[in-house]
Automatic annotation (TrEMBL):
This is BED-type domain-containing protein. GO terms for molecular function: DNA binding; zinc ion binding. SUPFAM superfamilies: beta-beta-alpha zinc fingers, Ribonuclease H-like. Keywords: DNA-binding, Metal-binding, Transcription, Transcription regulation, Zinc, Zinc-finger. Residues 91-148 form the BED-type domain. It comes from Papaver somniferum. It comes from the Eukaryota. InterPro entries: hAT-like_transposase_RNase-H, RNaseH-like_sf, Znf_BED, ZnF_BED_domain_contain, Znf_C2H2_sf. It holds the Pfam family hAT-like_RNase-H.
Amino acid sequence: MAESGMAIDSCCLQLWHHQDSHAMKSTVAINNRLNFQGLVPIQFSLVKLSHIKNKLPKMSVEEDHDDVMSEEDITVVESMTIQEHASKKRKFTSKVWNDFDWSRDKDGKEKATCKHCGKEYAYDSQKGGTSTMSRHLKKFPRLKMQDVGQLLLSTNNGELATRARKIDQSKFRDLVARLIIGKNLPFNCVKWTEFRELCSYLNVDVETISRNTTRSDILKMHKFQKEVIRKKLQCAPGKICLTSDMWTSVNTTGYISLTIHFVDQDWVLQKFLLNFSPLPPPHTGQALSDKLFLMLNDWGIEGKVTNITLDNAASNTSCVKIMKSRFIARNVMSDTGKRNFHIRCCAHIINLIVRDGLTEIDPAVIKIRLAVKYLKGSQRRKQNFLDTVSDLGMSVKIGVRQDVKTRWNSTYLMLQSCISYEKVFTHLRLVDPDYAESPNGEEWEQIKVVTKFLKVFYDLTTLFSGNKYPTSNFYFDGVCQIKVLLDQETTNGIEFIRNMAKKMQEKFAKYW
């Protein structure tokens, strides 16, 4: 304390002799000197110094000159003190400061920032008060369990820290909309308890959304993508080809689709499904043409169409004639379009040809179809089938497939998959009294021969159905393969193959 007192006397004397230009700087120096001695800084003024004037010891001019601090000395002391204050950490006693960082903004106001989500709160160190921050931390109960899977690593001045991902609600809603579209989920899936629990587990700040909100987001996304495609169509340098098809749902509601194909400015083949719309009856040629023209006008491409690909239904033929006459009347059809406006679907023609041929072995195909339907009718039957496959030492990877009567390629795949399990079907016929629709030995041989014969048709159907590459250049070669094969098989030594080839040849001549 003696040394501290001497420091105070010296500083006060210095201030007494330099009350003019160095008065304020000396005051700073006094406080700094006191800080160095571990004492609490006090404030001095010229008025207050007069009270201690008589108590100061007399000093000579030389002593006074030696003890006076220069401006350079004061500047050094000030700099050292500021750095020391900056390096010192504030001491907070509340536990909330384990999850908050104290700082000042550019205006010098104090604030507290959450380490986990980055949220900021105003803070006054003079008044204290951390209840707002405590309430905020209640949103992160799993942090107490040190759920590191929820935290992300970040760096701050070379030090690693953990924080929770800050949720972007608009991005979250966009991803939910994409999920529903991509996986064909219902709109109300956002109300599923499991879905909301999953979102809450990943981030507690996720705001729940309603079915109507999701529907609105999807419609906005559709509108945005529609404008993107519209601009691409406007920039298309050449003509546009159309493809249309119709479906009937299980509740007999009709639907029509419109797909476009064109080559863009970079010579890349583009394909877009523009519309998939309900089509109320009657499904006449006039109704189809009216619907297609509405779609084309909506996209503004009625003047760029060069041809359309449809199947061979009578209503489609009538539709094409009406559309062609409208395009010619508007003078928007090229000479090439006039000659080749209706392009018949090659895959559909092959489907018609093969279906006529399969009637020759209908009994065997029907038995296979009923056998597969029986096995897939219950879990017990499926398990019996798998157990039999395992007992016979066969692989279950292939499995049996069920077909769609109107699509011959699915029938081909069904027959091909069942051939591998001929022994299983034969065994089930012996051990399962309810299972009686299994092909006999002769019918199994027919199925094997027919499957081998139809492989060429299946491969060509797959080739013609491609949508990521032009297919017109495969047409001539593919049709020639079919003609040569049918001509050969009409003289086949197996009677049912010979009869199949003749039926298929008649259908081939009708279209090609």
